[in-house]
Structure formats: C-alpha cells, structure tokens
Write a structure and sequence with these properties.
Strand order of the largest sheet: 4-3-5
Subcellular location: Cytoplasm; Nucleus
Structural class: mainly alpha
Shape: elongated
InterPro entries: Ub_conjug_fac_E4_core (IPR019474), UBE4 (IPR045132), Ubox_domain (IPR003613), Znf_RING/FYVE/PHD (IPR013083)
Family: Belongs to the ubiquitin conjugation factor E4 family.
Protein name: U-box domain-containing protein
Radius of gyration: 46 Å
Organism: Somion occarium
Strand content: under 5%
Number of helices: 45
Number of strands: 5
C-alpha cells in the first residue's frame, strides 16, 4: 500500500469500512477452512479447471498368436456376469475451482488481460489488484472466499460516473452498467452463486470436497446477503445511479410483481430483478442473516412499511381498479409472512399497532389498515358505487347481478388472503399471536363509540374496515364451531372478569347493576390469575367486534333502506296528489320529485347489499350467531349439556349471577342478526340455522325473567313472526318447524300468551305503542300455527289449567281491539273529510296557502298513522275471531263478557251504522283498510259466541251501541257481498232474537228508578252488585270493575299502590242495602208481546 499521508479519500474509505465492520466480522467468523492467498490460479474466469482423475489400470494386451486357426464353434457354458465396479468419482481442485467461481459470482477479476479479453464485461479491480500484489512476494493472486469482502467492497465502490485520468482504467468504468443499483448488482451475485451451487451438486464430486466447496459458497452468500441488507437499510453507502429509486423500494418491486393478476411494474424479468421463484429464497437468506438481535427489523421493516402503504391502496377505485395492483401487495405480504422470522418481525414493528392512532386514523396508520379498508361501501369508496351501481333503476337486473357477483368475487379473494396472512402470523410464534390478538382488541377499544345511536362516522373506523376484520375473525372461529360442539366448553364463561383484553366498563348487563357486575368481577379475580386459551380470546373478540362493528354496518344499510323507502313513498304521494301542478309550489315539488337523489341512495344501498348479503359471509355469520346462541343456552341450562340433550323449559326461576352480569349485547346481537337475516336472506337458513333460532326464541320467551330489557324480548317475537310470514314472494322459513318441533308444540302457545300479557307494562316511556308492535307479531305467529290441532289443544290446556292468566290475556286483547279499531276508524273518517275538501279543487284553491299546506300535512300524517293502526287492528280482530271459535269459556267471565260485547257493538255501528259513509276513502288498499273483511270478522265473532247465554245478555245490556237495526243491515250486506252463507245469516238472526228477548227481560227487571250515588260504581257509574273496599285507598268499587282493572294494571286505580284481587275487602253491609233497594223497586212484568220471527228482520236491503 502507499506510504503517503492520509487523504480525504482514505478517510472516507476507513469510515465506510468501519461501518461495515460488523458485517465483515460476521463473515470472517465462518467456520469454513481458509485457503492460502497464493496458489495456482487462472488468469481469467474463462478457465475451466480440468478435474484430476485417478489413473485406471490398462487391460493387459493379449499376446498375438502366430497363426490363426479355424476352430469349430462350441456352445459356451453359461458364465456368471461380473459385477461392474463403480467408476471412481472425479476429484475437485478446490483452489482452482474457488478462483474461478468467485470471479464468476462477483463478475470481477484481478487480471487486466482477462477483463480485456471479455470485452470489459468482467470488471477489472485494478486498485485492489495492486494492493493485494503489494502484500505478496510474487506470483498471481488467486480469488478466494478469504478476500471476498475486499473484492465486493472494491466492486461496489466503483462509480461509472466518476471521471478518471487513468487511461488503463477508463474502459472499466465505461463498461459498468450505468443504471445498475447496488442492490441489483448484489441480487445478480446471489443468483450466480445459487447457479454455481446447483451445478456443483450435480458434478458428482466426492462428498468431502463438495462439502468444503459448499461451505465456501455459504461464506460468500452470507457476505452478499449482508451487503444486500445493508443496501436496503443504507442505500447511499455506495455509489448509486442518479434518478433511480433505491433502498426498500427495490425489494418492494419484485414483491408487487408476484401476483399474476396485478400489472407488473416492469415489462419482464431482468438479470438484476428477483424473479417470482427467487423472492422467497432470497427472503429466507435475509432472515437467516439478520434474525439475531432483531436486526431484521431495520432491514426489512421499511420494506414491509412501503409495501403495506403502497399508493395503489389509496386510489379512489380501490379494489375495483383495472390493474388490480392491490393483489400485488397481498401476494408480497403472503410471501413475507411465509418466512417465520419476518412474520414475527412484522408484529414487532411500531406501525403494526401504532400507539397514538385514533379510531378514525387507525386504518390509515396501522400496517394492515390500508388493506383492511378495501371494500365497496359507498361512504369509503364512492367511485365504486358510481361505477357499478349508478342509475340502478334504468339498468337491467342481469347487469346489476353481474356487477354484484364480480365485486363479491373480488371481496372473497381479498378476505381469504387477509385471513391466510393473519393466520400465518398467529402461528409464527407466541409473541406474534399475542400481537395479533392485541391488534383485534385495540380496534375494539378504539371503536366503542360505534355502538351509539348517533355516531359521527368521521370519528370511528369505517364500516369496510370492521366488516373485513369481522370476516377474518369468523374464519378463525370455524375450527372450534364443529357440528357436535366438542370444543364449546373450552370457552371460559368468566372471560370478561379474568381478561383485561376487552373492557365492559360502560356496557349494560343482561340483568344486573353495574355495582353487582363489578363485585362479581373482583370476586373472580381474587384467586390465581387464569390464562386464557386462544379459543376464548377469538370467541369473545369476535363477539365484541360484531357488536361494535359488523352489526353497526348492518344498521347503516338498514338506515339507507328506510331513507329510500321514505323517499319513494313521498314521491308517490306527490305524484298521486297533483294539486301542486300549476300552483306556486310546482317548482319546489318538481325539485322534490327529482329522482337523482333517490337513485343515489339506491346505489349506496346496493353497494352495502353486495358485501353484507354475500352468501359466503352470511353463511359464516349464521354459523357464528347460532353457535353463540347455543353457547348462551348451554350457559343457562342447569345441566350445562344443551344441545345434547336439549334444554328443559322453562328455565329455573333463579337466574345465575354469572349470566346476569354478562354484557347485554351478547343477546342483543344474536337477536339483531336473526332479524336481519330473516328479512334479507331467509333462504340462507334452508340448510342450517332454523332450529337454533327457534330454540333460542323459545328459551327466553318461556323464561322472560332472565332478560331485563323489554325491547330485546320484543325483538325475539319479531324474529319469530318474520320467520312464519310469507312476503315478497318468499315462503316462510319457520312455518313447518313451529308446527313440528317438539319444543314448539309443547311451549310456543304458553310463551305467546305469557308474553302478550308481559308486554303490557315494559317500564319504557314508549310502552303503550311498543306493545302493539309486539302483539301484532304475536298475532302473526298465532295465525301461522292455528291450523295445527296440537297448538289448539295447547291453547285449550292453557285456558283450562291457568284460567286466571288466560282471562287476563283475553282482556288485554279486547283492550287492544277497542283502542285500535277506534283509532283506525276515526283516522279513516278524518282522511275522508280532508279528501272531500280537496276533491273540490276550485274551492280548496281559494283557501289561504298556509291553510292548504296545513291540511295537506295533516292528511299525510293521518295516512301514515292510519296504515299502522288498521294493520294492527286487523291482526288483533283476526286473532280474536280464531280464539272465540275454539274457546268460549274465558270470554264469558263477568269482567270480560260485557266489555267484549260493547266493543263488538260499537265497531259494528261504525261499519254499518249512519257513520259508515265517513269511512269511504280514496285508495283504501293503501292503508290495508278492508271494511268488508273487517265486517266479516266481526260477524264471525258474534256467530262464534251466539250459543252463549252470557254473551247474549251482555249484548242486550249494551245500551250505548246495540240496536237490532245494525244487525239487520249487517246481514243484508253480508248476503249481498257473499260474506256469509245463508245458514250463517240465519244463525245470526236467531242470536239477535235471543238478544232482543233478553233485553226486554233486563229492562223489566232493572226498572228501579233513580239510584243513589253511593250505590254506583265510581269508575263505571253502574249499579254495584258486589261492592268491595280497596285496602289502601279505601275506595269502594264493584268487584267486577276492579277485577277487570287488575287484568290490565296490577295497582290500585286511585293511588297506584300494588294490588291483588284477593286483597280486596267485601263490603257486605253496602251489598245488603243495595239488594234491599233492588227488591223494593224491581218491576215484575216481563212481556214477550212480539213473536220471535217478527223481532228481527234480516231481509232489509242494504244501501
């Protein structure tokens, strides 16, 4: 070396070498034998060493015979063939081979003539040759693994852009690839080394020599990989071409090119670019070299970061882009996580679960966030909605179905790949598994606000992100959701107390206070901490994410459905009205009728439907939901054996504390998803899931005390009604099951009766209206099972064995019919009034604009309300008709029969009396208003009870609404409209005759003159027959009055103190005075002066 003083170039060299000391030390510490520097060498890599072969002894030549003799051929006797001795393997001249392959791998030489002979394609390392020559006495310098690091550094320091005055060296610099980066050069070295190694193993050299040669190659490979990793980490350490991306992107590029469906970034493979088959072996070599001390984090961490945040993931077209470049990111990640050390490294990176990320930014800042947010929902990917679903009403159904199928196929590919990636991470190590679980838990903790009623979507994770994550968790659950539930008991029921992974601090419990829940949690944690198994972690994470994420995405979809429905109804109303045409409001109405916004909402709805109703996602969701429902029933089953055998119903009265303190959303989510799937994709339950839903509903409707929230129980009956009703051309999915399953045949009727009563008082501020919705659903279920004699027998047993409860049930049903019929018919009359006003267009137009708008607004409100009341009333009347046909006794008790008769008479008067003309409205079918059908049902109820004397007496005693003329007119309408047969009309006539006769008798018996106030019931203002005193308020009422009241409300009507019928005190002294009063004033004359056939005339013509 030169003895001149140091110069800046020397200083730079020393600094560079110092930075490489660690890498060089790692290579030099290899246990491979170190050959001597001097030795036979080749002047260039074109030299092919001649293998030294072991001389083979020549066969001894046979002595020539002086004379050839002719011999008679003799058949030779068989001689055993001699075994062929194996050929001696060729020997390898290690020194010559090493000199050749080192030059070939690095594409360098220390010999100028060899470089010049190759046309300068082989790089002559002039300065290193001079340096090495000065270190030896004489002779050529061989290339060997011992000087590989110096060869590599010397080659990497060459810069084709450097100017030089050395004319000998100018061709070397000029022949260097001008755009080749350090990493590309090292990849080429790595590839050539692998080719050499592959060729070596095929030569058949002695194993010892092959092993020695391979060891030398491994030393060189370690060196190459070390510098390759360094070039990714510090790309500016060696000279690089200008204007070309260097560093991590150089490895990202071949990773992106792995997918055959993504557009490659280069037109074809090059000598310096890793081919798809080389990427994984190269990553394996990098991982082996840099895994110790987690050096791999600094080397490949930036590569993973740049891959996961590739710009293609943030394009507006998302996964629907034409180049499908996102697939390249997926393929690259799949290869990366396939190398276990890299998989472990990924979960150690700060960006894996960024600590400072917020709910809305997590999917943009976490490593896998950009991939997980790929989807089709319109809020995150409006361009996809516009491209695939714009103007949906103008497009052919087949076109929309094709678009949905295409997007679903893409989503399936994305979610399958993402699951494989997460699954590989989970299996890589215990640490990476924990990191994945923490990732899921972090998403949940950040997005607790998603469960709120009013959510600002800019402050929480997107629907797309959480749905994709949910799809991954569903797949993780599949291994333990086997058909026989063999692993169900591995789920820890105390998980929420033992684990801090999920916080339930602000969650409502199933049936416990926050204080009770916290005390239970502290008690469970008092002993030794329990380590949770992976099954419990995944189960509860899936359960909780479904609440905060997946089901809220479904809520977004349902809100779009409501919005679209309201817009459609509003547009139809405006179109049908037409009074705005030619008025000052025309421009505003035409703007409201603009279909653009309506089309946009419909397109957004289709985008949500594409993913949420995807058959594969629905299938997994149903399996998970039904597994959860089975697990919950097993939880409360005293034997903890459900479903083998099935749970025994009803459940015990005492609710286990460990169940009461569970989060309410466990039950709510099961119910909500059942309701969603019943409405949107009931056909998905054809193969499996129907039985689990039925058992789930029956379990908690027969044991309602297990659930505190009345709305959850209301939803359960809604689920059942959706399952038994046919709509939109779909057949009912549960109809057959509710009529055949043993649990349904045994418990369904009693559960419906019980819940009909319980829903009367829910404690909610909206209980008055909530009960009607629940009872409408109950009526649908009753109608679905009524033809089954087993269910009718069950109702009879209910009425016989628990008469008090059943009477209360009947009383509430009559209350409902009374209110609903009164409201619906009243609304119809008001609608008739306004429509009559508006029919006179000229007169209506002369009214002030404000008045017209008010009347139009009133009409719209009435139309919405009337439709609801009419449907509820129809269903309840139909239920009453069915019950009175089958069971009569409960309807004849004193506290029921009078009110039933009064209700029927009143509504008959409304339908056929003088006010009936007020019920004629335009388009009655829009409100589901069918007066003929309603009249037929009312007459059917009269006929069902016509053989009951108490019912005839009650009708006769109804002084407010009963008139025989109403029945005459009703019979005429029924005959003319073929609502009833002649036999039925005759039966109705005989009933009215009985009523008239009873009425005459009652009038004669009850003609008692003026009645003292103290004898009158304070609520009903009727003469008391059996007065009783209430224990707390000391008010005096008739026993039938308070009994009727207690059927609906179990409190004293005067002070709201709880009251039972057995607590009332008979007022015997007052009863004696009333009886004496009646005895003195009773008229004994009872006359039947008119023949029976003349009492009622059923032949009157109806108008």
């Amino acid at each position: 070396m030169s003895a001149n003083p140091t110069n800046p170039q020397d200083d730079a060299d020393r600094i560079r070498l110092k930075r490489l000391a660690k890498l060089q030390g790692a290579v030099s510490s290899s246990p491979s034998p170190t050959p001597q520097l001097a030795g036979p060498s080749s002047p260039g890599p074109s030299f092919v060493p001649t293998p030294v072969r072991t001389p083979t002894p020549a066969k001894a030549a046979a002595a020539p015979s002086p004379k050839r003799q002719v011999e008679t051929p003799v058949t030779p006797s068989p001689v055993p063939a001699k075994k062929k001795s194996p050929a001696t393997p060729a020997l390898l001249d290690i020194a010559s081979w090493e000199d050749e392959v080192i030059g070939q791998i690095f594409n360098v030489t220390l010999n100028k003539d060899a470089a010049e002979k190759s046309g300068w394609e082989i790089v002559w390392l002039k300065h290193l040759a001079e340096e090495l020559q000065s270190e030896v006495s004489d002779g050529p310098i061989p290339l060997s693994a011992d000087i590989a690091d110096r060869l590599l550094i010397s080659r990497l320091e060459l810069d084709p852009q450097t100017m030089t005055d050395d004319l000998d060296y100018l061709p070397v610099l000029a022949s260097l690839p001008p755009s080749q980066t350090v990493f590309e050069y090292l990849v080429g070295c790595w590839r050539r080394l692998n080719n050499v190694k592959s060729s070596l193993t095929r030569k058949g050299y002695p194993p010892v020599q092959t092993q020695q040669a391979v060891a030398k190659l491994e030393r060189v490979k370690d060196l190459i990989i070390s510098y390759a990793g360094l070039s990714l980490q510090e790309p500016d350490m060696f000279p690089q071409p200008l204007g070309k991306p260097i560093g991590p992107i150089e490895l990202v590029t071949p990773l992106l090119s792995l997918s055959s469906l993504s557009t490659p970034l280069l037109s074809g493979p090059t000598d310096s670019l890793l081919s798809p088959t080389e990427v994984e072996p190269f990553l394996q070599d990098l991982a082996r070299r840099f895994e110790p001390d987690n050096e791999i984090d600094d080397v490949l961490g930036p590569v993973v970061h740049d891959l996961c945040f590739h710009p293609s993931l943030f394009r507006p077209e998302g996964l629907a882009g034409g180049d499908s470049s996102w697939r390249g990111v997926i393929s690259g990640l799949e290869v990366l996580v396939g190398v276990k050390p890299i998989a472990c490294m990924i979960t150690r990176l700060p960006q894996w679960n960024p600590p400072l990320a917020k709910a809305h930014s997590f999917e943009f800042t976490s490593l896998f966030g950009p991939l997980l947010r790929l989807g089709v929902f319109s809020r995150e990917w409006p361009s996809i909605t516009h491209t695939y679903f714009s103007n949906p009403t103008d497009r052919r159904p087949g076109e929309l179905e094709s678009a949905i199928a295409s997007l679903r196929g893409t989503l399936k590919s994305l979610q399958s790949s993402l699951f494989q990636i997460f699954n590989t991470l989970v299996r890589a190590s215990a640490q990476s598994r924990e990191a994945v679980l923490q990732y899921f838990a972090r998403v949940i903790s950040l997005n607790e606000r998603r469960a709120g009623m009013q959510v600002d979507h800019t402050t929480v994770a997107s629907d797309t992100f959480v749905v994709n994550l949910q799809a991954i968790l569903f797949r993780f659950c599949e291994p333990f959701m086997d058909a026989n539930y063999t692993k169900i008991d591995r789920i820890d029921k105390d998980y929420f107390a033992q684990s801090d992974r999920i916080s339930l601090k602000d969650e409502t419990r199933v049936n416990a206070t926050a204080k009770e829940a916290e005390e239970w949690r502290q008690q469970q944690r008092s002993g030794e901490p329990k380590l949770q198994n992976f099954i419990s972690d995944i189960f509860y994470l899936s359960l909780t994410l479904s609440h905060y994420g997946y089901l809220k995405a479904i809520s977004s979809y349902e809100e779009l459905q409501k919005e679209y429905g309201e817009m459609t109804r509003h547009a139809e109303m405006l179109e049908g009205d037409g009074s705005w045409r030619g008025s000052p409001l025309q421009a505003r109405v035409e703007s409201a009728l603009n279909a653009v916004e309506q089309e946009k909402v419909r397109a957004m709805q289709l985008a949500y439907q594409t993913q949420l109703a995807d058959p594969e996602l629905v299938f997994r969701s149903i399996n998970f939901t039904n597994f959860v429902s089975t697990w919950i029933i097993r939880f409360v089953d005293p034997k903890h054996k459900h479903p083998n055998p099935l749970v025994e119903l009803p459940l015990p009265q005492e609710v286990p504390l460990e169940f009461r303190v569970q989060p309410e959303f466990m039950l709510e989510d099961v119910i909500d998803y059942h309701e969603f799937i019943m409405r949107e994709a009931p056909q998905s339950l054809e193969l499996s899931g129907k039985t689990e839903i039925l058992i789930w509903v029956l379990t908690f409707l027969t044991s309602t005390w297990y659930i505190k929230n009345p709305f959850l129980k209301n939803k359960m009956i809604d689920v059942l009604s959706w399952g038994v009703v046919s709509y939109d051309g779909r057949r009912s999915i549960l109809n057959t099951l509710v009529n055949t399953h043993p649990l349904a045949l045994k418990h369904l009727v009693s559960a419906l009766v019980h819940f009909y009563i319980e829903v009367e008082q829910t404690g909610a501020h909206s209980q008055f209206y909530d009960k009607f919705n629940a009872r409408r659903s109950i009526s649908y279920v009753f109608r679905a099972i009524w033809r089954n004699p087993d269910h009718r027998d069950a109702l009879k047993r209910q009425a016989r064995d628990n008469i008090e409860k059943f009477v209360r049930f009947v009383n509430l049903m009559i209350n409902d019919v009374t209110y609903l019929m009164d409201e619906s018919l009243s609304d119809m009359a008001k609608i008739h009034e306004i429509q009559t006003e508006m029919a006179n267009a000229q007169e209506f137009a002369r009214r002030p604009p404000q008045e017209r708008r008010e009347r139009e607004g009133t009409l719209r409100g009435l139309e919405r309300q009337a439709g609801i009341y009419v449907q509820l009333g129809n269903s309840t009347v139909a239920l009453l008709k069915e019950f009175t046909a089958e069971i009569k006794e409960p309807f004849m008790v004193p506290e029921i029969v009078d009110r039933l008769a009064a209700m029927l008479d009143y509504n008959l008067d409304a339908l056929v009396g003088p006010r009936c003309q007020d019920l004629k409205v335009q388009n009655p079918e829009k409100y589901k208003f069918n007066p003929r059908g309603l009249l037929s049902d009312l007459l059917e109820i009269f006929l069902n009870l016509s053989d009951q004397g108490e019912f005839a007496r009650a009708v006769a005693a109804d002084g407010r609404s009963y008139r025989k003329e109403l029945f005459e007119r009703a019979a005429a309408i029924a005959r003319r409209r073929s609502l009833k047969s002649d036999d039925e009309i005759e039966k109705l006539r005989l009933f009215v005759v009985k009523v008239e006769e009873t009425k005459a008798t009652l009038e004669a018996e009850e003609d008692v003159g003026e009645i003292p106030d103290e004898y009158l019931d304070p609520l009903m203002y009727t003469l008391m027959r059996d007065p009783v005193t209430l224990p707390s308020s000391h008010a005096v009422l008739d026993r039938s009055t308070i009994k009727s009241h207690l059927l609906s409300d179990t409190t004293d009507p005067f002070n709201r103190v709880p009251l039972k019928l057995e607590d009332v005190i008979p007022n015997l002294e007052l009863k004696a005075r009333i009886d004496a009063f009646l005895a003195e004033r009773r008229n004994k004359n009872t006359a039947y002066d008119t023949p029976a056939e003349n009492i009622v005339n059923m032949d009157t013509d109806a108008d």
